[in-house]
Amino acid sequence: MPSRIVKLSRTSYALWWVILLFVHAVAAAFSGFCAYFYQYILGKENNYLASCLDTAGIGMQAEAFPMVAFLQGLVALPHGLVILRMLAASLYYRSFAFMIESRDLNAFIYRLLCPRKAAAKVPSSDQAYCLAAVLRRSNWMRSLFDRTGLFGVDGEYFHLILFCRETFETSLQTNQAYRMSYYLPRDALNQFYVSLIVLNCWSTPLILRLYKRDKAKKRLLCLICDCVLDVVAAVVIPCAIIVTYIGDFDMELEAFPMALWYNDIWNMHALREFQILFVTSWCDLATRMVFSIGMLIAMSDIKDLLGARQMGSGRGNQVAGMELINPEAKVPAHKQKSEKHTALTPAPIANDILSTTSPRMASARVTSMRLASIQNRLRTASHVLKNPNYQRRFAHFVHMFVLLWGAVVLGLHLHAASKPVLSQCLLQLRPWGKPEPVCALVLLNCYELAINGTKKDVEAEWNRVDPEMVVQVVIRHCPAFEMPPIIQQFSQMIILKVYNSSITEWSADSALTATSHPVLESLLIVRVNITDGVLPPGLLSPEFPPILADIELSTTNLRALPDNLDTIWPTDAQLKFEYCAFTSIPDVVMRLLPVLLSFCGNPINEIPVELFAVESLRYLHIGDNQKLTVLPANATLSSSMGQIYIQHTQIAFFPSWLDPVVNIKLSQGYRLLRAVGVPYCEYAQPIYDRSLSNADAMAAVRAKTKTTAMMGPGEPSMLMGTSESARQVIYGAVKCEAGTEWTFFPLATEDEQSALR
């Protein structure tokens, strides 16, 4: 009878032990890290990364993070337990072992739970019930998961169950490969994963044919292929993505710096690859669980085929734990007598326990009978599966099926890889089944193309790509740009950026609309000259995209906004008009109820009182403006205000209406005012000298002469105080330290990546 285990040398067995321990450790560490990341980083209140992911529509809602963390931790737990079991077994036997043999373990449990009474040599009723429960559970588990059980590695239906499991997992892995082709722009990673799927499909019939006489080795190789693919899908692919972002992650911020999200290539890589890295839906989470569970099952079966442990020198290179290698082998007479004598002692105890007339023992007997009945029905139903002709036909079908599956996957990948490289594409994708080249990040660089940016020129370039797959459009260095109507075909566009160009025409037939751009989220116009300094018709469509909540204009000649803009643009948006030509803040801005508003760098000399009372406003930037000398004497500041940026202005006096919100922010540990480079900070400079005591610092402040600008208008805030107790209030409310200047749009970063070269 052929061996039911794969015989290995001591060195080979030790190598397999180390490999499997390492895989368990990596899987446990990865799942544990995911659980920690979702629970304690993404799950933290006001986490910037979670906010960015939510804005980009990546991943699940924050309410689901605890459940994701719990399930990831649940996956890590069995890996950790298996590692402990392997280490404990190796220490127990003083040699490499995967587990303690069942006979040794049962003997230990029996001695622990059912020690014989000193006189009667019979277990008590509680001990008897305990032993019966152990035996019932053992019989039930053995019938399903033992080597010869229904799901065991030596079960009659091993190949049928393995085929069903692999078909299900391979279908999920094929779907994963398709998602990777759709989202991942890294060709090497896609090629690696597809090659594994194809090799797994094609290797199965090859293994079954080459090792048809060696059942153990045949099953081992099939399980190894299955396990490798599960490990790659569950651990390797996410880790390969994580490695590329480790250097960019800010551990103090617990997120990626804001400037990176404005880097076109980095941002687009993140938007695509994070769809694979983060859990995006409950279905995606279930798929990841299937890969993880499949990996655990395959590794468990591999250990069964390798044997429980390596025996010592007294028994050569035999593998222990497999005493049923040949159940029909004859046993020598002297061993039969010895075994019979040994069996006579414990066997009656177990039989007495199971045959007792107590209600609990009767329940055990009924459960055992039901199990036997189920097994008999399964045996009856399996007669067809045992038919040799049926088995041959089924094996032929399986071989053809997996070969065809692998061929289809390979064909789809090769067809996608054959698409030409586009010159004006900063991020090209190769999704399966697309007839045209796919570009997620389309660049129109008029300088490199030697064009002006007329409609005809632009359409000639954009007609080369699949418009439904474009995610971001970047327009650079166009001296006379005309927005063509083809822009309305970019239905999946999320970001539109225009840099260092002059927009001469953007008509209504090329407008941004909810119908044509349902997922458009960001509009960035940087270093752009706009005709007449007003918004073009293409940005004033009555069907303006409703989720376009990030509108940023930096360094433009925009000087006015239409009075009806609040009926066109969405409310609760981030509006940034930085370094433009506004001389006042239009009233329509208050009616737009922005969450974030920036007019920094505009020559504005007066801030409307109504602006500070806007309940939706969290962040207000009115800095980098030397014409701004005072804040309103009387105003009502919304309690929702998070920070006010007044850096590099001529403000020297803080009125008392700031105090209520100052106190709120002090209790929360936030600074309300960022005031680098203002006269007030020059006056309060000793407060920020940590080498001075409170008394010395405030004495130095009092010694300074207050200018006329520091006397009003309005009632002075507690921030104007000079007592010793005022120092901590001022330090905790006003940020004056050099190097903390801030603009919401990172103009320097944009110039670095987009400047003429």
Automatic annotation (TrEMBL):
Alphabetical list of InterPro entries matching this protein: LRR_dom_sf
Gene3D superfamilies: Ribonuclease Inhibitor
Superkingdom per UniProt: Eukaryota
SUPFAM superfamilies documented for this protein: L domain-like
Repressor in keyword set: no
Transmembrane segments: 12-38, 69-93, 188-208, 220-246, 276-299, 394-416
Sorted UniProt keywords: Membrane, Transmembrane, Transmembrane helix
UniProt keyword annotation of Membrane present: yes
Protein name per the record: Uncharacterized protein
